[in-house]
Amino acid sequence: MSIQIFNTLSRSKEEFKPIVPGEVRMYVCGPTVYNLIHIGNARPMIVFDTVRRYFEYKGYKVNYVSNFTDVDDKIIRKAQEENVPAEVISERYIAECRKDMESLSVREATTHPQATREIDGMIEMISTLIDKGYAYVAADGTVYYRTLKFRDYGKLSHKDLTNMRSGFRQLQVTGADQKEDPLDFVLWKPKKEGEPYWESPWCKGRPGWHIECSVMSRRYLGQQIDIHAGGEDLIFPHHENEIAQSEAANGVPFARYWMHNAFLNIDGAKMSKSAGNFFLVRDVVAQYDPQVIRYFMLSVHYRRPLNWAEEFVAASQVAYEKILNCGDNLKFLLGSAGGALSAEEEAMLAEAEAYRRSFEEAMDDDFNTADAITALLELVKWINSHVNGESSREFLEKVQYLFEELAGVLGLETERDDALEEDLASYVEARIEERKAAKKARDYALADKIRDELKSRGILLEDTREGVKWKKI
Ligand code: AMP
Ligand code: ZN
Fold this sequence. Notes:
CATH topology of the domain at 327-409: Four Helix Bundle (Hemerythrin (Met), subunit A)
Strand content: 5-15%
Number of helices: 15
Distance between the termini: 38 Å
Strand order of the largest sheet: 4-3-9-10
Bound molecules: adenosine monophosphate, zinc ion
Shape: globular
CATH class of the domain at 327-409: Mainly Alpha
Radius of gyration: 26 Å
Order of helices and strands: EEEHEHHHEEHEEHEHEEEHHEHHHHHHEE
CATH architecture of the domain at 327-409: Up-down Bundle
């Protein structure tokens, strides 16, 4: 079966046909680096990393590009607050972001370009747009894109331009009066006092946000790419503007498939820095096994909203534990097993392949990781009831290979991380001591609170005659 992708452009599922057979060129808009990332930002990272892994599993060679936006108002503001150059801020948070990605098993991209290192390419593309009549220079040196000249404007977001224009008119802000039309957007803007800037034919200044992705995508992937992706908040205006820039400059269609993930919400609202309703990846992975977070993110299809709530994460923890137990069991049996596959085992292996088929069916259907996880858990159940001390080594190895291969597509480990287990054990022991002290001080409310907190992390305490024992739920 071929892979079907929901394309935002056509608002329907389409069969994936690569530009070059056997290859995927894919660009994913990355974060603006002025702060630590929150777990909402981690959703596209995990989702599209999984898409990449699945393509590779299917035998494609994937060229995966994801940028860091390292010049932006927020970065500049933060640099001014700390009284350091903007680069200090962006380099710091790029390094931190890489650590967070690694902790969530998000693989490094083929290339992670940075906007500030691609200014020449941006100046070149903006010049082409001016030459072709798609952009113009205002009196103060700002360069604007002449939006309505691009006939297809609005094709991605399916927006009605007439409504949009009247909306924009009411919202006219400073500087807008030098635009020919309210829909025009900035490609290059003059520097303000104390801001980083670059020389250009128009003025000393810096690029607008949208142009960087058109330029970096062309430089690292070519004029036409297979997949362009990001969170759904990027459809308009960011991706719409990228299409206008790239297609006008290059004269060929830009991306074939546009993929957008829905939001990670908290109490029904989008998790965002500005709303203040966020959890940092850094804090969340200190509290939970990062693999549980990855499992949680993939437990819902990427185009559905996902609600962040402790009980859902705890449920993911319980489910992921089943995967680890199965991995443990196989490892244990492999410790002493020997011998080659029996005829009976060979027949059983054919049966196990059915789980691979349901896994692939789910992933082929617009990367339905929710159903793929179900197939993986069914395989776990099957393994648990088909392996034992009598199993041959070859059988166990083949079963383990299948299990690890499918889990690996989702970026899930099947082996426990010993260091993490030790961390968990010492954390739980410390909390048990705290609870003991609370009880001694007759602070039963605190003792109960500690027990409940541990429970929400999937740890069950049992008061026994020999003292307090604990186990994972
Ligand atoms: P930003 O740094 O805000 O440009 O975001 C980087 C990426 O994270 C973009 O693809 C956004 O669409 C995505 N993103 C931001 N907040 C959320 C959220 N709450 N849920 C899912 N994706 C998000
Ligand atoms: Zn972008």
